[in-house]
Amino acid sequence: MVKENEVAAMEIEVPKPNNSDQINPRYSINVLQLLKSAQMQHGLRHGDYARYRRYCTARLRRLYKSLKFTHGRGKYTRRAMNESTVTEVRYLHLVLYTAERAWSHAMEKRQLLDGPNAKQRIYLIGRLRKAVKWADLFSRLCATKGDSRTSLEAEAYASCMNGLLLFEQDRNWDTALKNFISARLLLSLLYSIITATALTLEWCFSLATIFFEKMGHLPAHALPELLLEGMWLGLDLLCRAVYEELGKYGDLENQVLCRERVEELEPSIRYCRHKIGESNLKTSELLQIGEMEGPALDLFKAKLEAAMAEARSQQAASLTEFHWLGHRFPISNAKTRVAILKGWHSISLSEDLAQELEKDLHGPAADSLSAEKKLAVFDKIYITYQEARSFIRSDLASAGNADSVKDDLNGLDKAVGAVLGQRTIERNQLLVSIAKSKLARRREDKNEKVAKPEELVRLYDLLLQNTADLSDLVSSGRDRKPEEVAFSEDCVLRSMAFRAQRCFYLAKSYSSAGKQTEAYALYCHARSLAENALKKFQTMMDTDELLCSMEHFLDALLVAMTKELKTLYNECRANSCIEHATGIMEDEKAPENLSKKISTISLSGVDKKVEKFLIEKLDVYESAVGESNVKSVPRIGVFPPAFQSTPRNPIVLDLAYNCIDFPSLENRMKKDRKGFISRLWR
Fold first, then answer.
1. How far does CA 292 lie from the centroid of its chain?
2. Which of 328, 316, 293 shows the shortest CA–CA distance to 384?
3. Transmembrane residues, as ranges (predicted)?
4. Which residues contact 230 (CB under 8 A, 6 or more apart)?
5. Strand spans (E) along 504-639
6. Which of 25, 310, 414, 532 is most solvent-facing, going by the fewest CB within 10 Å?
7. Nearest residue to 577 via CA among 497, 500, 501, 511
8. CA angle, 158 as apex, 152 and 162 as ends, to 5°?
């Protein structure tokens, strides 16, 4: 497979009958496709840069041996790589894979568990410098030995490598921005060449050629300066517009690769502009950019994580207390501070995604990426707060006999556990919202996975358990403050609302199973629970106790839950009437059904229709499984199969055997020869 991709990616153009082309042939390498296939097949699909580096080393060894371009047998003797050396396309592959090997080695050092130390970072930057050196050489060789598309791809590759080096050095952000923008522009021009079947694209490329001629045949490395000055802005926008509108032309695989590379460059460009000061990105936007996937974004993610860790360590110095329900608990451990700050940053990101999630839940794409993002954020919150609790408990184990320190640490552990319980309740409420949206539209989309009321019953069981655990944790202290009392009352109210919701969906599950009596009783019980919860909510919202609980359960949430309970009350009333009417109709039809069954009774049982199995009626297109909403046993075949009579071999009795006299065979039998002495005693 790898050899086929490499052969497809290194096709040589058919030379025209021209003397100059025959002397200097032009080679064609699909750089994007070649690198993408190699990276995905040899480790980078899972971020394994060590495996990819080993592949590059083995590939270089095969190329050196096949080209007979070795550097001496004993002592290393360097052989120069220049334009005269490149006599076939595999020499260009040598330079490209050397750059890839150096880049993958640098990224391997970047992926260390504790991050590269000072010495390892110097080595990392050295490998990136080597990758830049070979990428520039590859670009220069392709400019003279490759065709126009190969030259553009090589120039974009070299610009991207230069940008990565400056990005890692954490300096010269304007130069890094120029390199990334140059790579993006070259990829846009490359896309124009790929989709050159349309007249508009030919005109776009002609316009680019005119720009080159007007500027005096400027080299490609001068493009960033011109672009930043504004001369190339129109061309860049034109290429991007062509890329968006005419993506249906040309080779689809190459178009997808160009789009992926342009999208992978966008986060680095935005971050460089943020560091220069040309744009004001929020922390949540940076984190959303860091969630993008791609091999070219691994360095950006590492840099972003290092910057966030440094910012958290600086903020941790000012975080000395943890405020919770009127209590102030001192935080002495620096690791605990950093873990709590991580949780706070994740909570802020979760709040930024809340509005987008509400739109998506009621829109056509309820299972959109926003819900998955918010669930991932909740997972991060859980991990960070669990990490903080582990640090607190380790400090508690080493506290000794200091009672005051132990009390503070126990209180801090209780506060962090309560916050973790709140976030767990919010996560389960998010899962409930997603399940409700699936249940509401399950009849519209048949291909989607069906949501059942039993799933919502299970989720509400979890919510009731989480609320009870949180209430027990808050009320476990001796000297309770008014905020803690109000918090416990809020937990009781929310548990009442959850009980009403659980009873409603339990009634739905009984109704779908055809049990109208149980469903009617449960709907009535859910309506009474919703009515009691509504009274409690109205009483709480009319008193001043709401002000004490504003820190944890906002007024907007209480109002939203009140609306949900009112809607639930009306739905319970409507569904109970429906179940009541359905039961009455069945009672009316009961005598008629009974008379029909009695009239068809047969004592012999001969009149009963025996349904055949699927094996016996293969020529008839009938379902042997039954309807999806009816629980019936599939009639495919009889198991275990019935016994069948089978014939066996006949039994032969040899009755004449005892009456036959056979001749003696003693004369034919071998006799033992004996010596002279043995004959004397015969």
1. 10
2. 316
3. 185-212
4. none
5. none
6. 310
7. 511
8. 145
CB 289 within 8 A of CB 271: yes
- Establish how many alpha carbons lie within 13 A of residue 628's alpha carbon, considering only the half-sphere containing its beta carbon: 2
Query: What's the average model confidence in pLDDT over 48-65?
Result: 91
Range among 28-42, 188-202, 211-225, 389-403 with highest mean pLDDT value: 28-42
Euclidean distance between the first and the last CA atom of the chain, given in angstroms as a whole number? 88
Closest CA to 23 of 114, 115, 87, 101: 87
What secondary structure, in 3-state letters, does 617-664 show? HCCCCCCCCCCCCCCCCCCCCCCCCCCCCCCCCCCCCCCCHHHCCCCC
Residue 263 token pair: 């999208």
Q: What are phi and psi of 127, to 5 degrees?
A: -65, -35
pLDDT tens string 154-187: 887 888 888 788 777 777 656 666 666 666 655 5
pTM: 0.51
Say if residues 15 and 80 touch (Cβ distance below 8 Å).
no
The residue count of the chain comes to 682
Is the separation of the CB atoms in 152 and 190 below 8 Å?
Answer: yes
Distance of alpha carbon 679 from alpha carbon 682, whole angstroms: 5
Class of the domain covering 1-72+79-157: mainly alpha
> How far apart, in Å, are the Cα atoms of 591 and each of 356, 582, 583, 597?
56, 16, 14, 10
The pLDDT, as a whole number, for residue 11 is 40
Instruction: Evaluate the CA torsion angle 401, 403, 407, 408 in order and state its sign.
Output: negative
What span, in angstroms and rounded, lies between the C-alpha atoms of 541 and 555? 8
Structural contact between residues 159 and 151, judged by C-beta atoms closer than 8 angstroms:
no
Predicted confidence at residue 97, as pLDDT, reads 92
Helix (H), strand (E) at residue 322: strand 321-324
Copy the structure tokens of residue 241.
């517009």
Query: Following DSSP, what letter does each residue of 478-528 receive, concatenated?
Result: SS--HHHHHHHHHHHHHHHHHHHHHHHHHHHHHHHTT-HHHHHHHHHHHHH
Distance CA(552)–CA(324), nearest Å, equals 9
Q: How open is the CA angle 175-176-177, to the nearest 5 degrees?
A: 90
Handedness of CA 452, 458, 462, 463 (dihedral sign): positive
